[in-house]
Amino acid sequence: MRLSYILFLFAVFSVVIPLITSIFYIRLLNIDMKILAALMLITTMVEGISFYLVKTELNYFWLQHIYTPLECICWMGIFFSWLRDKKIRTIITILCTGFILYCILNMLGHDNLKTTNDLPATLACLLFVGLCCFTLIYFQRKNKGLASIGYYYWIIAGLLLASAGSLAFFAFYRGMFSYPLYITHLVLNVISYGLYTIGIIWLGRRTSSGV
Q1: pLDDT digit string (tens) for 16-29?
Q2: What predicted TM-score, i.e. pTM, was given to this entire model?
């Protein structure tokens, strides 16, 4: 068995780690982390079905087209719960709505359910990177230091790492598929799931201790 295939399997199914952790702490989690738990559940189902379709040589691209807007909705909901400013929330709502409409039009027009959704995935990465950077600056100014933002930091760090690392992979996927970029994409996804897990544990233990 090739090392890359082993890495692929580990990257695909490592999402169950934050999922199981969130289920364990589910009663202690805030609404934002419950949304993250729902996203991890969706991701686990999509990864499992995609793996089966790949093994049976069936089309799995349609799942990507469905997953990308769902992922966007979940992350926008999380950022919406963090950023309480009305203007910021309005911008988030507009961005989320606009992106979902683009995904639908992209499916019906430029792409279809039998091709990859690399364009929406690239835009999603750009959107998440921008939101992560903005939120870190927002919390730093509000709390006067990143050390005080707690579990937010781990979740934002995980999303920022995964999105920034996957940006080049999706951007060049169709015209110039790169094996090193693919491996980087897999590794960073695994690390991001680890960071999500740390954030969930941090919040769960802090809530249970009443701090």
Answers
A1: 999 999 999 999 99
A2: 0.89
